[in-house]
Design goal:
The protein contains 17 helices and 32 strands. The radius of gyration is 24 Å and the shape is globular. Helix content is about 25%, strand content about 25%. An eight-stranded mixed sheet has the order 21-20-25-24-27-26-28-29. A seven-stranded mixed sheet has the order 3-2-7-16-17-18-19, with no helix packed on it. Helix 3 packs across helix 4. It has about 575 residues and is an alpha/beta fold. It has three domains: about 50 residues, no CATH class; about 300 residues, TIM Barrel (Alpha-Beta Barrel); about 200 residues, no CATH class. The longest helix is centred in the C-terminal third of the chain and has 17 residues. Strand 14, helix 10 and strand 15 form a beta-alpha-beta unit.
Length: about 575
C-alpha cells in the first residue's frame, strides 16, 4: 500500500480520486491555496497538479478538512445513529466524538455498545467515550450505575475511545474516592478525559485540570473561556439546540490562543439538524459574529483532531485521511460534497449511502417501567404560603431559584391565575414509584401538560402542566407507548414514540422530523413560550449539575448547595 501512496503522490500513476480546479484551506499556514487534491487508498497523497481515475471539478468552491464535532450526544438528535449520520454527513461532518451518556444512563454499557455498533452501518466515524457519570449524581434514580471498577474495566474495551464529560466537579475537588478511581483509570491508560465545569475558576479550576481533565464545553462567558484556555484546556464553542454560545464565546478567540478552541454541538435535535444544519451552522454563527473564517475552520478540524489525539485527521495534506468537505464559500458554508476516506458520501445536501435495516438490539427496547399513575399523584402539599420556584432563563439550561407567594386549597397548590406550573419527575427505570414535585415559572403553558422520557441525565419521565388530570394522562400515555413525547389537553392526548431507550426513534429522519414538529406545534398552541424549544428545554430541568434549581425523582434540588431543598421556602 505504501508503494501505491508514493506512486500516486509523485505522479507515477493516476490517483484514485482527484478534486480538480478548486481552492482549499491549509490549516497549517492559515492560507487559502489553489490546486488539485489527490486521494489514494482513503488518504490524501498530495495537492498541486494531479490526474485521477475519477475526477470531480470543484471550480469556484473551497475544500476544507472534514468537520469534527468534538462533543455530541447522538441520542439528543432523537434519531438512530444511522439516521443521524444521514443528516450530518451532507453538512460536511465526517467524525464525531460521541458521548453516549444519555443511553448509558438508561441501558448501561449496552447502550454505549449500541451506539458504537449502529454507527458502523454508516460512513460516519464515531469515537465513543465511556460516560463518566452514570448516574450524574447520587440524588436521582437512573437505569444503570457505572462504578469506578466498571470504569477501569470498560475503558479497556476496543470500542471505547476515552472518558466522557466529568460532570462531578465537587467529586474531583473534594477527592471523592469513586471519582478518583475513574480519573486514575483514564490516566493509566492514557485516555482523553472530557470536562463539564460551568462557572469554575481560580484554584478550583486548577484542581479540576490537575486531575487530568482537558476540555470544557460549558463556558458561560468569553472571560471564563479565556481563563480555561490560559490554563491549557481546550474549550468547545458549542452550538446546540437549547444551548448556543458560539457567538458569545468566540469573542475570546485571538491569534495567540486560537489553537485551544474546538467546535461541538453537544445536544442538537433532528428538526434543528434538518432545518439549520450541524457544525456548518456553528461555523456560520461564528463567522457572522466576527470570527475569521479560516480560524473557524482550523478550530473545527485540526484543533479537534489534535485535542483528541486523532493523528492523521483534520488537515488537507499528504498522509492525512481523505476526509474532505467541499463548501460553496466560507461565509454561508453550504456543503456541496462530502468525502469520507476518499469516497463521495454526500452531495448537494443528500446522503449517497444506504444503511440497510436499523440495528435494534433487545437491550435498548422496552425501557419504561412505571406503576399506577393518577391525578392525585401530582398533588403538591405545602406547609405555608411561600415556595421555592424554578425560574426559566432564555438561551441556556441555567435556571434561577426564586421564592414566590402561593395559595393552597384542598391539599394542593393553586395554579389558576398565576404564571406558575407544576413540574414532576416520575421514576421510570425500576418502578420505584418515586415522584419529585416542584414549581416552574415563565414557561407559558396553559390548559394542558407536556411529558417526555428524555430528562437529563437519568432520563426519567418529566412532566409539566397546569392541572393534575392532564399531567397524569400524559404520563400514562408514555407508559403505553414505551417512551416518547406526549401533549395532553382537556382529556385528549397526542404522542410520538421513542422506541430506542425512550430517547430515540427508529423512524426515518424526515418522517420523525415531520411528526415531532407537529407535536411541537401542539405544545406551542398551549401557550409555551417560543423563547424555548418546548420539549428539549423541558428535558434539562432535571439536570442536577447545572445551577441553580432543578428537580429529580427524589425532590427539588439546589445545585449551588448540592443538596435537596424542598418546595417550601
Amino acid at each position: 500500500m505504501l508503494e501505491k501512496y508514493i506512486d500516486a503522490a509523485v505522479g507515477n500513476k493516476k490517483a484514485e480520486v482527484v478534486l480538480k480546479n478548486g481552492k482549499f484551506v491549509n490549516v497549517f499556514t492559515g492560507e487559502i491555496c489553489s490546486g488539485d487534491i489527490a486521494f489514494e487508498g482513503g488518504r490524501i497523497v498530495g495537492f498541486g497538479s494531479y490526474e485521477g481515475e475519477t475526477e470531480y471539478d470543484i471550480a469556484g468552491k473551497i475544500a476544507v478538512p472534514g468537520l469534527i464535532d468534538a462533543h455530541v450526544h447522538i441520542e439528543s438528535s432523537q434519531l438512530s445513529p444511522e439516521e443521524f449520520a444521514k443528516l450530518v454527513l451532507p453538512r460536511g461532518t465526517t467524525t464525531v466524538i460521541a458521548d453516549p451518556h444519555e443511553i448509558t444512563n438508561v441501558c448501561g454499557i449496552a447502550g454505549a455498545q449500541y451506539i458504537a455498533d449502529a454507527v458502523k452501518n454508516t460512513p460516519l466515524e464515531a469515537k465513543v467515550m465511556l460516560p463518566s457519570c452514570v448516574p450524574a449524581t447520587s440524588f436521582e434514580t437512573s437505569g444503570a450505575v457505572l462504578t469506578g471498577a466498571d470504569t477501569e474495566k470498560y475503558l479497556k474495551e476496543d470500542f471505547i475511545y476515552g472518558l466522557g464529560e466529568f460532570m462531578n466537579y465537587p467529586g474531583v475537588v473534594f477527592k471523592d474516592p469513586e471519582a478518583m478511581r475513574k480519573l486514575e483509570a483514564a490516566r493509566m491508560l492514557g485516555k482523553v478525559v472530557d470536562g463539564h465545569a460551568p462557572d469554575t475558576s481560580g484554584k478550583g479550576l486548577n484542581g479540576y485540570i490537575a486531575a487530568g481533565i482537558s476540555t470544557d464545553h460549558e463556558c458561560t462567558s468569553p472571560e471564563e473561556a479565556a481563563e480555561k484556555v490560559s490554563k491549557g484546556m481546550y474549550v468547545h464553542l458549542r452550538e446546540g439546540s437549547a444551548t448556543r454560545n458560539v457567538a458569545q464565546n468566540c469573542k475570546a478567540v485571538n491569534a495567540a490562543n486560537l489553537r485551544r478552541f474546538i467546535f461541538c454541538t453537544d445536544d442538537r435535535h433532528a428538526a434543528d439538524l434538518k432545518a439549520n444544519g450541524h457544525l456548518d451552522n456553528a461555523l456560520r454563527v461564528a463567522v457572522r459574529a466576527g470570527m475569521d473564517p479560516v480560524w473557524a475552520v482550523v478550530a473545527a478540524t485540526l484543533n479537534s483532531a489534535e485535542c483528541y489525539r486523532m493523528y492523521g485527521k483534520g488537515a488537507i495534506a499528504p498522509g492525512y485521511d481523505a476526509d474532505v468537505a467541499v463548501f460553496d464559500d466560507l461565509k454561508d458554508f453550504r456543503c456541496a460534497m462530502t468525502f469520507k476516506k476518499g469516497r463521495l458520501v454526500a452531495k448537494g445536501g443528500e446522503a449517497l449511502f444506504e444503511t440497510g435495516e436499523k440495528y435494534l438490539p433487545a437491550a435498548v427496547k422496552n425501557t419504561v417501567h412505571i406503576g399506577d399513575i393518577s391525578a392525585d399523584s401530582f398533588k403538591l402539599r405545602l406547609r405555608g404560603g411561600r415556595a421555592n420556584v424554578i425560574r426559566i432563563l432564555k438561551g441556556g439550561v441555567v435556571t434561577k431559584k426564586v421564592v414566590r407567594e402561593v395559595e393552597s386549597k384542598d391539599g394542593d397548590v393553586v395554579l389558576q391565575g398565576t404564571d406558575l406550573l407544576k413540574l414532576a419527575v416520575v421514576e421510570r427505570h425500576k418502578g420505584t414509584g418515586n415522584i419529585g414535585l416542584g414549581l416552574v415559572e415563565k414557561y407559558g403553558l396553559k390548559g394542558g401538560a407536556l411529558a417526555l422520557t428524555i430528562a437529563h441525565d437519568s432520563h426519567n419521565v418529566i412532566v409539566l402542566g397546569d392541572n393534575n388530570e392532564d399531567m397524569a394522562a400524559a404520563v400514562r400515555e408514555l407508559r403505553r407507548i414505551g417512551g416518547g413525547m406526549a401533549v395532553a389537553a382537556q382529556g385528549k392526548v397526542q404522542s410520538l414514540p421513542l422506541d430506542i431507550a425512550g430517547l430515540m426513534s427508529s423512524l426515518p429522519a424526515e418522517e420523525y422530523v415531520a411528526k415531532s414538529e407537529a407535536l411541537l406545534e401542539k405544545a406551542y398552541a398551549l401557550g409555551v413560550s417560543r423563547d424555548y424549544e418546548a420539549f428539549m428545554s423541558l428535558s434539562f430541568l432535571a439536570l442536577l449539575v447545572i445551577p441553580e434549581l432543578k428537580l429529580s425523582d427524589r425532590g427539588l434540588f439546589d445545585v449551588t448547595k448540592f443538596d435537596f431543598c424542598g418546595v417550601d421556602a
